[in-house]
Amino acid sequence: MAKTPAQNTRPDGSEFDGFEEAPQPKLSGAPVSSSGSIADWAADLAKEAELDAVKARRKAENRELRSQAGKHRLKAGKGKDEAPAKGPAKAKAASAEKSRKTARGTSIGSSNDPRARAAAGLNAVAGLDISVEEAEASGATSANTATVQALSDLIESGNPLFKNGKTWTPHRPARPEKSEGGVQIRMATEYKPAGDQPTAIADLVAGANENERNQVLLGVTGSGKTFTMAKVIEETQRPAVILAPNKTLAAQLYSEFRNFFPDNAVEYFVSYYDYYQPEAYVPRTDTFIEKESTINEQIDRMRHSATRALMERDDVIIVASVSCIYGIGSVETYTAMTFQMAVGDRIDQRQLLADLVAQQYKRRDMDFQRGSFRVRGDTIELFPAHLEDAAWRITLFGDEIESIAEFDPLTGQKTGDLKSVKIYANSHYVTPRPTLNQATKSIREELKHRLAELEASGRLLEAQRLEQRTRFDLEMLEATGVCQGIENYSRYLTGRAPGEPPPTLFEYIPDNALLFIDESHVSIPQIGGMYRGDFRRKATLAEYGFRLPSCLDNRPLRFEEWDAMRPSTIAVSATPGNWEMEQAGGVFAEQVIRPTGLIDPPVEVRPARAQVDDVLGEIRATAEAGYRTLCTVLTKRMAEDLTEYLHEQGVRVRYMHSDIDTLERIEIIRDLRLGAFDVLVGINLLREGLDIPECGLVAILDADKEGFLRSETSLIQTIGRAARNVDGKVILYADKVTGSMERAMEETSRRRAKQEEYNTANGITPESVKAHISDILDSVYERDHVRASIAAPGGKGAKTDEGALVGSNLKAHLEALEKQMRDSAADLDFETAARLRDEIKRLKAVELDLMDDPMARDSGIDNTRAKRKAEATGKPMRGPSKEPNPDILRNRESSYFRKNDLDEMTVGRTEKPMPPGKLPQKPRPVDGKGDRPSAGQAAPSQASEQGERTAVSDRNSDPIVKRGKVGAGSYEDPVEASRQKRRPGKTGRPGR
């Protein structure tokens, strides 16, 4: 093929002959600098290409670093991957660009460059009248401190584990010899592995024995994932940590593992704050928010018990929330501040008391409580930080320990003799005096440099504020060994370098431990999301003089740091996330078959145009069958509005969302299971870990609104709430089938087909899960409340029939409780008597609530109308055996119980309805002396009868005083009082 001849024209349009050189095409890219040569320009291009290659290589190395599952073997030399030196022009442009950026702690739009401020007619430094040269010499061109800048570079750097010029490796401190080791981990259960459990257990145990760092257990709802975890722990005989995404799920797991391992150390480690408002500063409005917190003493005791068990025992199982990645005291100081005493040891009593004070135990001769001690002559009584209902009595004979006894701190009764005891500190932040002295010296040094920096920048207010706050903390540290916000000085108290993470629970965990991440698709993103918000808040505090810059080192672990510190991990979820699947190489143990034979519920899609009316009909049908309904919406307002609408339609309904306190949520779920109402409306709380076997319908409104609440993971988790009931079903209300809906339904259908095939092959008939309501009542949160046992009258202990009060005669039960209260008072057991008194008040308040229930009033009005209609027509009114009360025992054919009508209420409440016809005779009125007239006396006059009715009506019109909180009376909870001051609480009831 012939070539096309070249054009005989130049770029400017003039012609040239064929023997001239062809014109060069126009240059593309950056123009050549007039001051430089072509060689310099080529060198710049080469350097830019080299820089791009360095960035690509660093990105690949970081990807490899994360994929190596925490081994972090990359060596980062000081001169490795250094960026090439910039030319003068680029350096000048970069400097100008840096001066245009706003620094942290300054208002948006201002500049810290002295020359830029002078050119704008401002002082070179805000607040100081100095020259530009003096300002540049003082270093006041940036408001960032060294620590803030270092951590900013750490966030923006390619390798998050490259700290202080070298690769960071996790700190593994030496641990003392265990005094209670060698106990075997053994399960106490009647259940045997069934369904997919044997295969899953074998796979996970084999991987753990081969020290596989990452494993995934894909287990559907109700398949017994907790039982599988317990079996793996028993088979491997290794200590374990179970990580839960929130306190509620952690409490449920703690209760289950306590039942599985009654003879082993099952501990609970979650945040001990019932309420926590961190200190913060908002520069735009000049608002400082003080730190406010309330500590739950029960959970604080359990945290101490958990760390002590990790130090002393091998058979330890810790159930923790994600808050365990926050800092606590270091292992070295925590173990150094312990001492052991044995019978026969010679000690100095005054030195022993001084050591207890150094461990932050308080001397209380009258108010003996946890974390305190008292002295009675040669006897020292100590209430250790990790015990709940036991204390130690150390008896001395001269300077020799004669005996050590354990006793009940309430009654003083001796419960046993001990050969030796090991006393741990009363706080995780306890620090030896030499370390404390060194820390205060370092804090003063940092304060000196920081004050000089602030004063040179003209920030005199911040300097005065910082000096006042820090010096007060130093005085408290020197005098008492502790101060408010001592965790902000954790860098000096633990001896860590700037930028290094603080000590956390993961430093206490043994090297051979197993880590189970329950609901990993929620827990793992939480770990990655905690660091940055905490950093920004504390950076603002440091810039405005509320804290020293070293407070930034008191922080949660970064995700990469947690990844490097975690032991062998098993991620457990019904919908594993991308990260855990990538770490496990896409291999997972599947647990789809349920031991009960239950299959995933059928899923139906209905149009969303009339979704509210349609779901109302389904709710009524489900309630008539005796089951409960879960209904999910998109916003809090929709949840409350739907609850109001359903309540107006006569449905017993509650709502639950994030505005409701955790304790209130547990009570709502308990009431739903007990049948106090039929429908629970929620948003995102009706997902992971919600165990309601009575749930027969899950309705998902607006299922076609793509987003987090209607993603594939969310839909699969919500659908699983109906999988514990053999008659459960799910309805998705949507006008179109989205991709998330399609994938969720396909996964549900796949699992359902596999389950049906297994049931057919093994001849299994599905049956609903039977979970005891005590699983909720025995949770950690319920135990925090002072509440007497509601076992059957005359029953001894807590092992009587569960829920004996339900369906029993409330009046007889109250009489039995009153008798127990009087007997306890006669035995001088006033604490038990007070608890029984509060329980009686609570039950009476519940009875008043039921009498004041609008649904009960509506039912009474309906009964009265039906009776009057029956009297007018002459037809007998239908009895309870033909028409049972829809609010009680819905799934039975007949019932003797019904709500009295208004006429019957004026006579008196009856447990068994009277036959239709003549009502019982009204009781005779009471005379002025308070006695009823005898049969021979004359009836009172009509006037006196009318006056008596008026007095009774006036008496009944008085408002009824009700207790607003369970157990209020002798025990006032300060947590509840502070919560009531903050904001009005929501109960989930319609209209409240």
Automatic annotation (TrEMBL):
Domain Helicase ATP-binding per the UniProt entry, residue ranges: 206-359
Compositional bias annotation for Basic residues: 980-992
Basic and acidic residues composition-biased segments: 56-66, 880-902, 946-961
Region span, Disordered: 1-36, 56-115, 162-182, 854-992
Biological source species: Hoeflea alexandrii
Complexes and interactors: Forms a heterotetramer with UvrA during the search for lesions. Interacts with UvrC in an incision complex.
Binding site for ATP: 219-226
The protein's name: UvrABC system protein B
Stored Gene3D superfamilies: 6.10.140.240, P-loop containing nucleotide triphosphate hydrolases, UVR domain
Record text about domains: The beta-hairpin motif is involved in DNA binding.
Residue ranges of domain Helicase C-terminal in the record: 611-777
Biased composition (Polar residues): 1-11, 104-113
Residue ranges annotated for the UVR domain, each copy included: 811-846
